[in-house]
Amino acid sequence: MTLDEQYISLRKGSEKLALQTASQKNAVLKAVAAALDGERAKIIEANKKDVQIARDNGTKESLIDRLSLDDKRINGIIESMNIVIAQTDPVGEEVAGWKTPNGLTIRQVRVPLGVMSIIYESRPNVTVDAFCLAYKSGNAILLRGSSSAYNSNKAIVQIIKSALSKTQGGVPEAIELVEVKEHDHSDVDAILTAVGKIDVVLPRGGKKLIQSVVQNARVPVIETGSGVCHLYIDESADLDMACRIAENAKIQRPSVCNAIECIVVNKKISQEFLPMLAKQFAGRVVLHADKEAYDILTAASSKTGAKLFEATEDDFGNEYLDYECCIKTVSNVDEAIAYINSHNTKHSESIITESRQNAKLFQAKIDASCVYVNASTRFTDGGEFGFGAELGISTQKLHARGPMGIKALTTTKYLIDGDGQIR
Q1: How many CA atoms lie within 13 A of 332 on its CB side?
Q2: Average model confidence (pLDDT) for the chain?
Q3: Residue 27, Cα to own-chain centre: how many angstroms?
Q4: Which of 35, 106, 150, 293 is the most exposed, having the fewest neighbouring CB atoms within 10 Å of its CB?
C-alpha cells in the first residue's frame, strides 16, 4: 500500500472511530490486548531478529536495551493497555457551555485530532502504546518506526490489524505501518508535507530526529523532546538522598529520555558530596567534570575508582543516553537555574534540597515540562503519572506539555444550537 493509499484508509478509519462509543472502543482494545498476549512468541521471535541485526551492526548495549522485548516487557505493554482501557474516554466531554442573550446554546466539547502520525526510533513498545492511545481517543494513526525495529513493529501491527478485523466493531483502517527501507527517509519527507492528509505529526526519539521533523514539517507538529535532564544538588540537600536519587536517575535505565545527563552541584557541598557520588556510582558511570569538580574527584579517585575526564563545552547540554554524565559546579541556586535553563531541552529537572524557599524558586523558574523536588526524573512517564501509556513527552508549550495521555490527543470544537437566530 502506498502512502497516499494509507492516508485515504486512515481518514476513513478516523471517521468511523469518531462515531464509536467508549464501550465499543474498549471492547476492541481488550480483544487486541488478548491477541498480543496470545501471539507473544511471534513478537519475541521477530524482535530477536532486530536485536541480532543491531548487535551485528555494533549498536551499543544501552540502545539495544531500548529495542529489546521479552515476556516481562510484553506483560508491561498489556498492563498499560488495560490501564488506558479503564480510563474515562475524553471524546465528547463538555469542557464548557453557556447560553447567549439571543438564545444560542454554545458547548465546547472534546473531539479527536483526526489522522495522526508518529515518527519514532527503536522501542517497539511505542507501536502498541501509540495505537492504544490513538484508538481510545478516536484517532487513526500512521506509524513510522525505525528500520532497526522493523521486524518487531511489523509483527505487532499484523497482530493488531488481524484482531481489529476479527472483532465486532473493530476498525482495521485505524492503524497503518510505513514499510521502512534502511537509509531511505523519503517517506518521512512525504509524511511531513502531507498537508490535508495528516492532521498532526509527533516525533519521538533523539535530538537529530526531532529537529529534522520540526524544521521540515509543513503539517502541525507536537514536539516531544530529547532528554537533557539535570539534577541539582543544593547546599541544603540531604546528601545520602542525593546520591540515591542520582544513582536511580542515571543508572537504572540510562538510554531513556528521562534519565539525567548532568549533575549540578553547589560548591558549598561539593567537597563532601562529589566523593560520595563517585563512590555511589562505583566506577559504573564515566564522569565528565568541570575544572573544580575534576580536581575534587581526582584527589578522591584512589578511594572511589571514578572513571573521570575533564569536561569540554560539548559535554554540557549533551544527551549521552549511556553510562556517562557531566558534572557542573555552581555558587547558588540562581546560578543553577540559569545554567539549567540555558542547557536543557525543557524535559525534566530536579532539585535535591531541604530549603522550601529554594524548592519553590526552582519549580517557579525552571523552564521544563516536569520539575521535581527531592525525586528522580525517571518518574516522567505516562505509566508513572497514571496515564497507562504515553505518546511522548511534549516539551513545547502549546496544546500539550509533559507526558501525553489520551486527553492530550484530543482538541475541542464548539457546537452551537439555535432556533432561527440571525445576526
Answers
A1: 4
A2: 95
A3: 26
A4: 106
CA distance 293 to 274: 7
As a whole number of angstroms, the distance between CA 10 and CA 5 comes to: 9
- Give the pLDDT band (50/70/90) at residue 325: very high
Contacts of 187 (CB under 8 A, 6+ apart): 3, 144, 178, 180, 181
All three cell numbers of 172, joined, read: 482495521
Task: Kindly give, in sequence order, each residue whose CB lies less than 8 Å from that of residue 52, ignoring residues fewer than 6 positions away.
Answer: none
Q: How far is CA 363 from the centre of its chain?
A: 21
**Cα(338)–Cα(230) distance, rounded to whole angstroms?**
12
What letter would DSSP give residue 91?
T
Which helix (H) or strand (E) element contains residue 106? strand 105-112
Residue 411's CB is within 10 A of a number of other CB atoms, namely 13
Strand-pair partners of 304:
none
What's the pLDDT tens digit per position in 51-104? 999 999 999 888 899 899 999 999 999 999 999 999 999 999 999 999 999 999
Q: What residues contact 185, with CB distance under 8 A and at least 6 apart?
A: none
Do the Cβ atoms of 241 and 276 come closer than 8 Å?
A: no
Strand locations in 339-400 (E): 348-352, 370-373, 393-394
Report pLDDT digits (tens) over 284-296. Answer: 999 999 999 999 9
Grid coordinates belonging to 56: 551485528
Q: Is the pLDDT reported for residue 303 higher than 80?
A: no
Cα end-to-end span (Å), the chain: 49
Cell 488506558 sits at which residue?
A: 84
Whether this prediction's pTM lies above 0.70 is answered by: yes
Residue 326 class from Cβ within 10 Å (0-12 exposed, 13-18 middle, 19+ buried)? Answer: buried
Q: Copy the grid coordinates of residue 137.
A: 481517543
